[in-house]
Design goal:
The protein has one domain. The chain is built from seven helices and four strands, in the order αββββαααααα. Strand 2 and strand 3 form a beta hairpin.
Length: 175
């Protein structure tokens, strides 16, 4: 039994050590990050757009805000389209279109190859949120936890080094 505990402890420390090193590679920034930016958190007042729901606002690297918005407008429509109508009150097609327009304006490019690379890196950081969310969301349903762990194992951990390199490219553009 002690050998099992040692193996589990080693695996736990190894995984969290990798996560910690990965997160520490993200350059420190003092950019305002909304943390939950999606269409339901935009209010129209006259001819102005206002962000609401500032519960998760912080300062940090813009990749965190991009990842949060990507989850709502890109990954959810692709993998859980029914949740888009439920949470955003728009169709998955409109959510994907909004994401594409936002990416083109944010990065000032129409180049499909560049946008594809940027999307890959941002999606990777969405998975980082998926890796960490079970530790934050105490009452997370077991099915969500299972899917989060499976996605991390299959998609996030194998591409951590590539994501760190991709962030360097993005960081040059958004600094």
């Amino acid at each position: 039994m002690d050998i099992c505990r040692e193996v589990i402890s080693y695996a736990f420390n190894f995984i969290f050590g990798r996560l910690e090193r990965f997160i520490r590679q993200i350059p420190e920034r003092d950019t305002m990050v909304h943390g939950d930016f999606h269409t339901n958190n935009i209010m129209v007042q006259g001819d102005e757009l206002l962000m609401i729901d500032m519960a998760e606002i912080s300062c940090g690297h813009p990749i965190y805000g991009l990842a949060s918005s990507c989850y709502a407008h890109r990954l959810n429509p692709m993998y859980e389209p029914a949740s888009v109508m439920r949470y955003l009150n728009i169709t998955p097609e409109i959510a994907l279109r909004l994401w594409d327009v936002m990416m083109k304006h944010y990065f000032s490019t129409d180049d499909p190859e560049k946008l594809s690379r940027y999307n890959s890196v941002i999606e990777g950081f969405c998975m980082l949120k998926g890796v960490l969310i079970p530790a934050i969301w105490v009452n997370m349903p077991e099915e969500h936890k299972r899917r989060s762990v499976e996605a991390a194992r299959e998609h996030f951990f194998p591409q951590m080094d590539a994501l760190a390199e991709g962030l360097k490219e993005l960081d040059e553009i958004i600094s």
